[in-house]
Design goal:
- By secondary structure, the protein is mainly beta.
- It contains 3 helices and 14 strands.
- It folds into 2 domains: 81 residues, no CATH class; 126 residues, Mannose-Binding Protein A, subunit A (Mannose-Binding Protein A, Chain A, Roll).
- Strands 7, 8, 9, 10, 11, 12, 13 and 14 form an 8-stranded mixed beta sheet that branches. A two-stranded antiparallel ribbon has the order 1-2. A two-stranded antiparallel sheet has the order 3-4.
- A hairpin with a 5-residue loop joins strand 3 and strand 4.
- The radius of gyration is 25 Å and the shape is elongated.
Length: 225
């Protein structure tokens, strides 16, 4: 079981392996209760091995109540598994059914941004649907503060499209045409920059603009596990 975030930004729970918590108790000779707790994790599909957790943490709280000569003990437990999921960088956020994403606020040029994403095992975001466009809006909704961005352009971020090979023919960093990406939403009178603006940027509403690749902007990396 894992807590995940969907494209609208709300949290939900996905299926997965389960924790089994067993509790046994006995009263010792001094009249005190001793409680033994055993935590086991079902792992029929090797999930625990894939996650390579650093540790399993168990947090216990309890309450005792006495009424009519009977004593009731209520025990609550919370188990956590730390560690990356399938090699995904720890600071990437999962959006259910889409993938893992990170908004970098330290501004870079388009090429440097793509290089940074690649170093993290990812690539600049390639939006393939309106649901994936919501990822951009969700990340922006948290009020990111760009660091070192080109003046007056701090509200924009780089995405994974360019027209370096042929003017006006935008393709993704994976080589697929923008026209077949599943999502295209241009700003007014865009694209407009000609040979001087060969990289795609997005605003907080996932609206596209062509821009100089030399601008230093925020950028979103996408990791598909």
């Amino acid at each position: 079981m894992a807590i995940i975030r969907n494209a609208s930004g709300s949290c939900g729970i996905s299926g997965g392996s389960k924790f089994n918590l067993s509790v046994s108790s006995h009263r010792n000779m001094t009249g005190h209760w001793n409680v033994a707790i055993d935590l086991a994790k079902e792992d029929p599909y090797g999930e625990l091995q894939r996650r390579k957790p650093k540790q399993i943490g168990l947090f216990i709280d309890h309450e005792t109540a006495t009424c009519d000569n009977s004593e009731t003990v209520h025990i609550s437990a919370k188990a956590t598994v730390s560690g990356n999921v399938g090699g995904v960088p720890a600071d990437y956020e999962q959006f259910f059914g889409l993938g893992y994403y990170k908004l970098h606020t330290a501004a870079l040029t388009w090429l440097d941004a793509q290089t940074k994403c690649t170093e993290e095992g990812a690539h600049l975001i390639i939006v393939n649907s309106a649901q994936e466009a919501d990822v951009i809006s969700t990340l922006y909704s948290r009020g990111p503060k760009p660091e070192g961005a080109t003046p007056k352009q701090g509200h924009l971020c780089y995405v994974g499209f360019h027209d370096h090979q042929q003017e006006g023919q935008f393709v993704s960093v994976l080589g697929s045409p923008l026209s077949k990406s599943g999502y295209v939403r241009w700003g007014n009178n865009q694209p407009s920059g000609g040979a001087q603006e060969n990289c795609l940027v997005s605003d907080s509403s996932a609206i596209y603009w062509d821009a100089p690749c030399s601008w230093k902007l925020m950028y979103i990396c996408e990791y598909k596990s």
